[in-house]
Here is the input.
Amino acid sequence: MKKRLIIGFSLILSLVLGALAVYQLFFVADYPLRYREEIVHFADIHSVPADLVCAVINAESGYDPDAVSSVGAVGLMQLMPSTAGEIAQKLGIDEYDLCNPGTNINFGTYYLAYLYRQFNNWETAVAAYNAGIRNVKLWLKDENYSPDGVTLIKIPFGETERYIKKVFSAREIYASKLGN
Here is the structure.
């Protein structure tokens, strides 16, 4: 009887430890949550859902503050220096470092809020974050992509379509992690 209890307990313990390892490997590693304080702070200031900011950071840089893309986008939220310059001017900031997590999150979240005000739809704003405002405005004028001029039902750039799916899939996970 005692041997059965030990075997049963060992089996349960192994299952629990295995589940924790899988959780760590797939959930925590693929969906990190660093810079939480800065994300929540700037999301609140700019009226952007914090889970969306987390998902964009995950998709853009994988939470690497020193990331630089092949086209020159910099930092956690992969901001182009020209866009960052415009944002800095609007925020009244003279000197900044896009590799500084707080600065990058502030600017990127400001930009997401700006895009939302342009399109009044988070999916469309995220499409513009990836493909550019000009492209999204053209798509919204084309009935093949937007029957109502507001909502995109089809996205002609495969990369942007995959990006939107990645961001909104991650957003659900970050909503859970943030307790939303």
